[in-house]
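Could someone model heme C with this protein?
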Amino acid sequence: MWLLVLACAREAADPPGGGPDPAPPAWIVTTAAPAVESVAGPTTAAAPVLGYALLVWDIGPRLIGPDGASTDLDPSVPPPLAATRAHTGELILLTETDLLTVGGDGLASPSPLLELLPEVPRTLAEFEGDLWLGAGDRLWRWRSGVLAELHREDQPISGHFAVGGRVGARPVVWVEGADGALVGLDVDDGAGRATIGAANADDWAVDDSGRLWFTAGGALFRREANGDVWEVPVGAEAWWVEGSPYAPGVWVETAGAPVHVAGDVVTETTVGPGADGRGLPTGWTVDDLGRLIARRSDALTRTTVGRPLGILGILPGEAREVATTVSLVGPELPAEVTWTLARCVPGAWCSEGHEGANPLAGDAVDPPAWGGGTWWLAAEAAFGDGETAAVGREIRLISEVATWLADVEPLFELRCAACHGAGSNATPLDTKESWITFYASIVDRTVYPEETLAEPMPFGDSDGLPQAERELILAWGDADFP
Ligand code: HEC
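Reply:
Sure, complex below.
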């Protein structure tokens, strides 16, 4: 089983007929690598945003939704501390001084909730239609137009909370209580459902299994649904933890780099020195879908756990991954990405190809059945506003044994047929027989163009053939022209 995966990245892609790729990949496989998307151009300021939506303050405040659709916001809106989406669909933004409601038109207005609250909240989250707000030692739930403050004489609570955990079947909001305890309060009646005594947690979050994760003294712990609490080893000191009640696992900051932990293992280390060459993030958060949003030196990146980055190739006989990336450049995330893989003559025609949608989910392809040769991989992205963008690049699928049909003829079609087709002025080279007849001259002109006394081929192409194609021509001769 081979998988095709694409990702969007901010680097230039070769257009059809563009420069040859120095190290083309062969087979395409997937790995459990994460997808790292750049979600905006150079971003000087991006608010650490909790919640459903992501906001980018580069070209003015702009909301990029989880589906890639973007809305320009009222320019007077300051970068928010937190944002979430109410069950009514509107966006709620929390800034230093205000609680704002943003409608579908991008216009912000003060939330009527603020009038009901004695102070501006500092934290905000949504869970199953309820809006939760916290400040200092106060915690409020807004449900169906009713604002309720959770207040417990016996167990003073903090406005720092994680909502959506479960104790048994009951959803709870976890807050810090007296004496460093973590207390799970029923989201409906506020009754204490569970207590982790002397947890002395520095930070806490819940996952979609209702488990509570917390850090204490640099270690990470997890409370199972049955009440057991385990330490989860992450190989470094862990202080900050973020998660979503709608996504598995949590992100934990270790040595400055957030890592994703699910179960007992670190599943992803994606953001940090060496991970993608961008250095440590200067700030990060997690959205409701469990994706990491990190502010980096040159961009804002959004990392989806366990999704591959780029098209990964593996050379036959060699268990080596070769990453290539199809790049989509845009100020926002595409709402939908489709791909096609076809044999193409750049600028001329493409044979009927293979196609699929949503490549990030991984589409199965079968290179051995398709045959080797040069393929054109195209990806088209549709953005929320109806705009589309297309990119593409050449990839090479190399068969175990180079054959005329699978390898050489496609190479001929791609690189030579424009001038050497049947009936052309230059010597026709459209048949296997003609290639055998002219093989020595072809090798001279294409494999060793620097040494030949004749005109190198392809005519007028100063780069000549990519190395892999030169090797293919030699391999075909070595195999006695199959
Ligand atoms: C842009 C047009 C063009 C392309 C593309 C091109 N050729 Fe040529 N080719 C020519 C021309 C024109 C000649 C005649 C020039 C000469 O006398 O050397 C020629 C000559 C040749 C010859 C010598 C033929 C003979 O009769 O001795 C060979 C072999 C050849 N090409 C191979 C190739 C191969 C293989 C490719 C693809 C990898 C290729 N060419 C791509 C235009 C092209």
